[in-house]
Amino acid sequence: MDPIKSKHMAIDRESLMIDVRRELDMPSRRLFGKRIVTLGGLVMLSGCSLSDDKSVENFLSRVSRMNDGVQAWLFNPKRLAPTFTESQITRPFPFNAFYGESDAPEVDGSDFRLKVGGLVRSNRPWTLPELYALPAADQITRHICVEGWSAIGRWGGTTFSEFLKRVGADTSAKYVGFKCADDYYESIDMATALHPQTLLSFTYDGHQLPRKYGYPMKLRMPTKLGYKNPKHIM
Amino acid sequence: MSKSQPASATRHNMKTIQPAWVRICHWFNALAVILMILSGWRIYDASAVFKGLFIPARVTLGGWLGGALQWHFAAMWLLVFNGRFYLAMNLLTGRIRGKFFPLGAHVILHDLREALKGHLSHADPSRYNAVQKFAYLLAMVNIAVLVLSGLAIWKSVQLWPLRELFGGYESARVVHFGAMSTICAFIVVHVTMVALVPRSLLTMIRGR
Asked: Given CB atoms, is A158 within the 8 Å cutoff of chain B?
């Protein structure tokens, strides 16, 4: 390093420090900082307003679609949800729907017929006694709601994959859809439909499924969130 | 070479204190953590773990549970990928060893006592004191706990080892909330310290 260059560097250091001090004192510099803080504040606290922006919504939707793919990849059809003992059942088991308990649909079981349609070999309807005669299965599992809360319950019925076999369902189809007496509609992917713990349930805690829990039947899936489990299936 | 100016002082001023990757990771992380916290609060509100503890909706992100979940499951990718890049770079460059260790309980307590007395100097912004080292390491571990407990909640059947690690589904929710509270406390202290030593903010933007 030659002497002239280093003297130059020394001067630059002095003037650099003066420069920096001056820059920060300048009102425009402070205003720039303030503007960043304000914009940041807007981003942080706008809640709804940022989400209302169409491009943000589209972006979030696209990420959601991508996440669906990741979740499908994560799903192991052999992985069982944990089971529990009688003493661990949540009592009382909570009622949850998009309406109040008194508005839960009344279904007359005596002339009830479960309609079956779509890619199946047999689309004849099923009576309740016929369904009750199917091979029995029981489970004590945790119902987890998308809201975060959970409750442990006991459901009895028949394994859904066995029911699908009996109606000759085409298991290469992608989804199974369910229409419900409370005007709810839900669909599940075939992998979940065939999962060993997916239960077409007719009883709760050893008794006939009460109206508030989905009489005459509910599809119980401990590998899915609560809202995916349709009640009052028609 | 001139002897009028010590070469080290000159070079020190030109030297980068925070490399570009550290600064980029820092700001991406700050954004991701804030998005996760604000959307997480809205998710919490849908079914409060602690009865009576409710976060006002206007400080939350997402507008409703569905919107908050979308934000949460979008920002998580930024948090994790940026975090993994940061940890990998720290290990590969040896920065983690140089900047954060050696560290011991006695030196942390000593520096903490000095800090509370107002005697801790920040004259050399390229060095972290023991309290800083501990706090930043804690923040890294804390975010890891947040991610793992979050995964345990999100995929409590498929990622069952994580669920078991945190003592079951309901317990994982409590751990997740506790870790969130910890990172919030860290942020409050961190931002306060930056306000007290504004040069550190410049360093994290400019690198020197």
From this structure: no
Q: What is the CATH number of domain A79-228?
A: 3.90.420.10
Mean pLDDT of B159-187: 98
Question: In chain B, which residues have their Cβ closer than 8 Å to the Cβ of A45?
Answer: 58-59
Q: Establish whether this prediction's ipTM goes over 0.90.
A: no
CB of A74 less than 8 A from some CB of B: yes
What is the nearest CA distance from B106 to chain A, expressed in angstroms? 37
Q: Is A232 left (phi over 0), alpha (psi -120 to 50) or beta?
A: left
A59 reaches B (C-beta below 8 A): yes
> For chain A, which residues make up each domain, given as ranges?
3-73, 79-228
Name the CATH superfamily, with its identifier, for domain B16-206.
Transmembrane di-heme cytochromes, Chain C (1.20.950.20)
Q: Which residues does A94 contact at the CB level (< 8 Å), separation at least 6? A: A149, A151
How far apart are alpha carbons B107 and B161 in whole angstroms? 36
Residue from the list B2, B34, B43 with its beta carbon closest to the beta carbon of A148: B43
| Mutation choice for B interface testing from A149, A221, A225 by most B CBs within 10 A | A149
| A148 at B interface, C-beta within 8 A | yes
Please spell the DSSP secondary structure of A56-81, one letter per residue: HHHHHHHHHHHHHHHHHHH--TTPPP
B160 touches chain A (CB under 8 A): yes
Q: Search chain B and give the residue with CA nearest A60.
A: B70
Give chain A positions within 8 Å (CB) of B2. Answer: 3, 6-7, 10
Q: What is the pLDDT of residues A137-167, one digit of tens each?
A: 999 999 999 999 999 999 999 999 999 999 9
Containing A198, the helix (H) or strand (E) segment is: none
Residue A44 has pLDDT above 50, yes or no: no
B5 interface with A at CB cutoff 8 Å: yes
- Tell me how far apart the alpha carbons of residues B153 and B184 are, in angstroms, rounded to a whole number: 20
Which spans in B155-196 are helix H?
A: 160-165, 169-196
Q: CA of A66: which chain B residue's CA is closest? A: B74
Domain ranges of chain B: 16-206
Q: What angle do CA B30, B35, B38 make, to 5 degrees?
A: 120
Please give the torsion angle defined by the CA atoms of residues B59, B61, B63 and B69, in that order, rounded to the nearest 10 degrees. Answer: -140
- Of A218, A93, A17, A160, the C-alpha closest to B202 is A17
Q: What's the gap in Å between the CA of A77 and the closest CA on chain B?
A: 10
pLDDT digits (tens, 9 = 90+) for B6-56: 554 444 455 778 999 999 999 999 999 999 999 999 999 999 999 999 999
